[in-house]
Amino acid sequence: MKSVELSTLYDKITKYDFSVVFISIIISIIGLFNIYSATNTASFTGTQGLFGHQIIFVCAGLVFMGFFIIIDYRRLGKAIYIAYAINVLLLVAVLVLGRSALGARRWLSLGFLSLQPSEFMKITLVLTLARYFSNDINLEGYSLRDLLVPTIMAAVPAGLIIIEPDLGSGLLLMLVAFSIFLFVKIQWRSLLILGIVGAISLPIVYNVVLKDYQRKRVITFIDPTLDPKGAGYNSLQSRIAVGSGQLVGKGYMKGTQTQLNFLPEHHTDFIFSVLAEEHGFLGSIFLAILYVLLFISGVRISSRAGERLGVLIAMGCTAVIFWHAFVNMGMVLGIMPIVGVTLPFMSYGGTSVIVNFVLIGIIQGISIRRFMF
Amino acid sequence: MPATLGGRDETRIYETRYRFLYFAVLFFFMVMVSRLWYLQLYKGRLFKAYAEKNRIWQDKDYAPRGMIFDRNGKLLVDNKLSFDVIIRPQYLPEDEDAIINKLGSFLNMKPEDIRLKLAKAEDLPLFYPVVIGQDVDRDKVALVESNKIFMPGVDVIVRNKRTYLYGESTAHLIGYIGEVSKPEMNKLNATYDMSNRKLSQGDYIGKYGLERVWDIELRGYDGAKYVIVDANGRMKSEDESKALFGDLPSSRSEPGKNLVLTIDNDLQQIAYKYFKDGNKKGAAIAIDVRNGEVLAMVSYPAFDPTTFSSGITPEMMKEMQNNPFRPFYNKTIQDHYGPGSTFKPIVALSALEEGAADENFKTSCAGRLFFGNRYFHCWKKSGHGSIDFHNGIVQSCDVVFYKLGIKLGVDRVYKHAFELGMSQKTGIDLPEERPGLMPSSEWKLKRMGVKWMPGEDLSMAIGQGYDLITPIQLAGAYAGLATGVVYRPHVLKEIDDVNGTAIYSPRVEIRHKITMTAEHKEFLMKALWGVVNEPGGTGFAHRLPGLDMAGKTGTVQLAGISEQDIYKKCENLDELKRHHGWFVGFAPYDKPEIVVAVIAEHSCHGSSGAAPLASSIIKAYHDKYGFVRDKDKPPVAVEEPKAPATRQVGEEE
């Protein structure tokens, strides 16, 4: 009897693939160690308490993840249009009465906690688009006209976020939406038209429609090294930190660039440079491999979901994490512009941690329900 | 029903797309690996050496603030080079005391003060320069420069010092700049969405006047470049840094935009010198009645904006604030006064338009008028005798206007005064303008809870009631009387980019249109011409032969004069209790171009205290630009009218 029980348990474990959960927890643990090093630097910077906060955030994230594993994603899908409307309203509210930090209105203060509706929009948008495309099946590929509604769905919140101004999150949202569009298949002809129209209209808009000061705004967005107030400096220092890590790194809590505080903000957007400096090429590759495994697991869950809504949600959620990681690491390594985008499970910050675990929870929830179809 | 995948076909379609997704993940991995390989393995040794020995620092390229010109291109505000001694806290060694003490001795500063400045900048990134000594003189700069090598972190940077070439004379108009305070910085930065627009500690912003109004345009954009230095602050060769970073990012500063004002500096200086050299207090404003361009705007006493811009001590500030003559106020727009007799033409207009009196109105003045239960006095004790409407204005007879006031009542005057711009801001492009006050019966009931008394019509009619008017409003009202329209006054003519091309100019805008028949206008113009050009007129002493200046004098008794002071001669009172003198004039009376309003505080008389300035501004204007009406006809020699035998100049009350 005992062996039968054991074998059913084994069946269950293999039947239910928990790899996304495991990998995200492993990255979070690495992230915690890394944040401890980044915030307990030799020179006092007032960040010592942040490690404790991050532990709380991760625990909260795990609870949220559990909740979203249990809840049926199809129920989320049903309520999503209402949630979408509320989230857009919150984005408007941020613009009207939001709390300003560093000149950008991103937070909505609810007395006891501060919300960042733009972060939650990433989840909401994926679910909204997934619901839309699972109702409107078109195997031949969507034409531009078919895509009008979903484009508006993505452009409205993205526009609101860009106005905040948070160009990074806004563009990221568009990137995720476009990934989903490509995945559900756009007609070749439409894609071609889109590309040609874009290629022609962009320079015209830039040169003719935009005013001088607006052009300047675009340039500073695209090339923030032109920003004299520090972003360019961060980028250089980040490259020095990464490069000086060499093969094996300078050792845990021994990164000179980090510890001597040459890198402002190193516990949030530039957290990867801390790891790269202290653990070198090998450590960095290890982390990159973990992300690769996470993405592959996410994509695999999508491919096995067996139902259109699940396919699209799992793919979309994975895309959110993927683009975050891509843009953030690219920025740290000096191949992408400095836009404030966090590294999932590594960067300090409550909303970011919780949102990423919710994404994992949703993906996992799809995984365990795949036998229902 | 949820849509399950539609059989084999759909599954197969997705399969190809998943291949793309796996490919994207592979692409991510390849990019990261190759870039990490490049930075950490290929260039790793260079970066390691760099991290140990070298430093990057950021040299800020400060944008020169825009310059300010008068209407003829005369430079009013310039930037001059000055040296600031700074510390980059990041490069201070552990034992910073030695360096701070040394620097303190060079700059004659207490070490505590230096530490205080460093502490203030603590929450800024460590590479931000902290200004320790501002506008340091050359000897000290030389000392610091030659000892820089022993003081890592200390540096000298070149900045622009705002220099107001005409000092006090443009202080209220142009204003001044100052270092941004923390609350200001947070407030302003929250409104900018461009990162290179944002302010950081040590930056300067406009604090007052035009410097504040057009701060963003004037400021321009700061640039920055990154410089690689060794641990002792010596610059590294470019080749070395290129090997690591390629071309270091840098951005050049972009100078601020230039302002061109409507002000004519010659007129401005005439007005300023009049107050300064005559040790007078007050304000003067000259406006082009044809478009609202302000030609001169002076308020005195004033302050030195150059000193203000390089930082003022709290003691200086306190002294200025306690000065009874209010040097901080731009009196042309921020101070209001009773209009005195300058109000009479407005009453005259009301009487004509409302039909309370016509041009042939006549009465007699016995030096006083009994109304209600008391006497109301005329400024001329002996009385004007039998007097017509024209001479009532010319000689500013109070009894004539008492009678008109009784006939009209306050509300019918209010209507016309409001139309001429009283009780409303003029909308000038400067901050903190005051609206003044024109009473009405409704206003009094609401404000004081008491009904308007008939006796108050009398004092209202001679401008001694509740009425309050700013010099710019008075100038506007007379422009309205003279031309039928009041333009929104403005001091900015255009904003130019660095090449001198105008990128903005304000709209010329009509604020008020005056209801007035041509006959009534002609009557009033003749009367106001008479004030200055007819013997017996209160402004006769300051007439400009051939220029046809018209205008009106006025005197305002200050509230709070004690009983025994009332009959004292004004000149014998304490300065702060003396009457204010008004003069408002325009020229030429038949085709007006310029209007000038002057308030001479505590000068006792409008005719002697204020009229000379208005007259010399108008003369200077005519000498410089000529009048349009005279352009087509040859100048006509005008006969000098005879001086009055009976009247002493400056007696008007």
In short:
The complex is a heterodimer of chains A (373) and B (653). Chain A has 373 residues and is mainly α.
Q: What distinguishing features does this structure have?
A:
heterodimer; A: 373 residues; mainly alpha; 3-stranded antiparallel sheet; 3 strands; B: 653 residues; alpha+beta; Penicillin-binding protein 2a (Domain 2); Beta-lactamase; 5-stranded antiparallel sheet; 24 helices; 37% helix; elongated
Any overview of this molecule?
The complex is a heterodimer of chains A (373) and B (653). Helix content of chain A is 71%, strand content 3%. By secondary structure, chain A is mainly alpha-helical. The radius of gyration of chain A is 22 Å and the shape is globular. With 653 residues, chain B is an alpha+beta fold. In chain B, strands 2, 3, 4, 5, 10, 18 and 19 form a 7-stranded mixed beta sheet that branches. In chain B, a hairpin with a 5-residue loop joins strand 11 (281-288) and strand 12 (294-300). The model of chain B is unreliable at 637-653 (pLDDT under 50).
